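Quick bug: Large ribosomal subunit protein uL29m output formatted oddly.
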Amino acid sequence: MLARKLIINQSVQSLCRNMLKLNVQQQTNRTAAFLLSSSSQRPKRLCSTIVPALGNRYFSTPSATKSLMEFFDDSKNWTENEVKVGRAWKLDELRIKSNKELHQLWYILLKERNMLLTMEHECNDQMELFPSPERLDKVKISMNNLETVVRERNKAYHLLETGETGERPQRLISTCLGLRRIYRSSEHVLPPHMNVKWIKSRCIGFGGKAVRKFLLLYREKLYNEKRKAKNRARNEVIMLLRRNPNIDRNTLHSKYPNVNIDKLVSDDKTRGHYVPKIEG
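Here's what came back:
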């Protein structure tokens, strides 16, 4: 019996040694194959690549460097008062691009924005003029348009797959002052009926004499602002008609859609303080 146990233990140990040698050999072969393939496909140097865009527009992906000078503009632009740059990216140009190109363009714009903000801060510290500050606006417009395109694609995908937009659900809620605002739902660890802290922060009632007085004054303020804007637009139309009687009505309708221009044409204020000449 003892001899049989010794034989079984020896066989198990030899089997384990063979399996260990086999695993080590396989791992070594895989490592060698990976190193060989990566060395054959690895580029000799890191350089910037040009990605084709719409028409003659291109955007370049800079080289992968870790220098802090990437946060600053080119040194030849430091003494310039104006830097010539292109316009912002339009929605139509971004809609025809693939997701990979949009991903690359997003990080290019992000890097450009960081560089411009650094240069603006440095110019303010040195009390110098920041050249071409409109570059920040162009980058901001491009990033907003890119987010709009990505959101459109996400909505289309979710509508096709699930029948929903995939956006965060939102609803109107009342604050403690009785004002209505849009609340966008977010994910929580606990469900709503178990999250006591969330319930206490959201279930806030409003009422009382002070709140009613505040709402009355607030609505009066909104009404006065709306009334003043309407009167201001009406007076502007009257002055335009008084100075230019033959002005195009369609242009006025498009610029002042809330003003009844046909009624103002025959108004006394539009005619002015003079008596028209009657040819006899």
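Actually, after a second look the formatting is fine. The longest helix spans residues 2-41. Closing.
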